[in-house]
Amino acid sequence: MTTATHDEPQGLRLTWRIVQIVSFTFLAYLVIGLQLAVLPPFVHGDLGYGAVLAGLGVSTQYVATFLSRGFAGRTSDTAGPKRAAMIGMAACGVSAALMIVAALLRPWPLASFALLLAGRLALGVGESCVGTGCIMWGIGRVGPAHTAKVISWNGVATYGALAAGAPLGVQLAGTFGFVAIGIAGALLMVAGLLLGWRRPAAKVEAGERLPMHHVFGRVFPYGMGLALGAVGFGALATFVTLYYAAMGWSGAAATLSVFGACFVGVRLVLGGAISRFGGYRVALVSFTVECVGLIVLAAAGSSAMAMFGGALTGIGFSLIFPALGVEAVQRVTLSNRGSALGAYSVFTDLALGVAGPLGGWLVSGGRYGPLFATAAAFSVIAMALTAWLYLNHGRRTA
């Protein structure tokens, strides 16, 4: 594989170079999106298992993602981010192949479900390796000064692929059967591996490799800020449909679409704000906007007001990951930044894992206002934590 260093491109050339790398994130998350909406119906309807096992089929991927973040980061630092991304795409391809076999073994439900779980584990490993690898690969190709822009574009690729993949998966499964999900995913990953092999690699930074627990300790406060902010996103994504149903409103899907459009739009339009104003300041503004959006959701008296709250939440949440992520990776040397990014990303997994059961407990009485109010309170705590980090690290760095 060819190794190349970055030469600080600018303008459209900079954006094109970033897009060339994060396109592999798009392909991998398209495979994830293809499975997202059709997996529970396959487990429940075709295999005949209950809702608990259908949920297990989905959540297995997230457990594997959580557990493999450290491996993804360390591989990016030692073997190079391109290697990590290629391993990730190969793992996603393995997952797709196992989906094909699981679909063919549908007459034997136990064997089919076991292979499906193995495929979800492979997909989780692939997600963490592609996510971390492509960000570090992009940074290596354009330079650390453009870290925020790479993270922002990688997020656009991630959420864009999930938004496109879910309806496409439903269409494929409805027309050709569940086996088509596996075939489509395998073809996407073969294409990704062939294209990725031709892309120049980024230089592996020389230097001392810190133990993972040291890296984790350095990014911990930034990750906690991310987790506190991500609870709001998890609450909205998980419970907004039930919220609308409980209130007798229509338009829950439209609210999710508005949230996604605002999220992606802010990253595209305002991604450069992090380089201009600094991650701490952008994060503070982002938490404030997200908090207001969640308060509007909690107090909404109509579907239009709830949609407005969802839009504000999407605007606020959009830049939290890259804003705090830029500051987090600067707490370690270049030779440990892949590990730092992997450790930092764990907190998103943690927040989304907590949001479900916490939200379920809060709405057990059928009232959804306390759920979004609690998420808003978490945003306030995140603001205070970010302000503390800025006072102790941000001004000193500046």
Automatic annotation (TrEMBL):
Xref: Pfam families: MFS_1 (PF07690)
InterPro entries hit by this protein: MFS, MFS_dom, MFS_trans_sf, MFS_Transporters, MFS_YhhS-like
Record localization: Cell inner membrane; Cell membrane
Keyword Transmembrane helix set for record: yes
Residues spanning the membrane: 21-43, 49-72, 84-105, 111-139, 151-170, 176-198, 219-245, 251-270, 282-300, 306-329, 341-362, 368-391
UniProt membrane topology term: Multi-pass membrane protein
GO cellular component, one term: plasma membrane
GO MF terms, alphabetically ordered: transmembrane transporter activity
Family the UniProt entry places it in: Belongs to the major facilitator superfamily. YhhS family.
Protein name, per record: Uncharacterized MFS-type transporter SAMN02799615_02916
Organism of this sequence: Dyella marensis
